[in-house]
Write a structure and sequence with these properties.
Elements: H1 2-21, H2 37-45
């Protein structure tokens, strides 16, 4: 019974710390938003992007 209480308390404590610290991971900052410079260079020179 005491172990269960300790586990719940630890979970609540972690959750509270996360809420107080704010959301630190912003996935939109890590995902590509479009073609990169290599793709732009290929299309500018007339080569196929897909290789077909």
């Amino acid at each position: 019974m005491i172990e269960r209480f300790k586990s719940l308390f630890a979970h609540w404590n972690r959750r509270l710390k996360r809420q107080l610290a704010g959301e630190r991971y912003h996935p939109e900052l890590h995902y590509m938003r479009g073609p990169g410079p290599k793709t732009k260079a290929k299309t500018a020179s007339g080569k196929s992007v897909r290789g077909a």
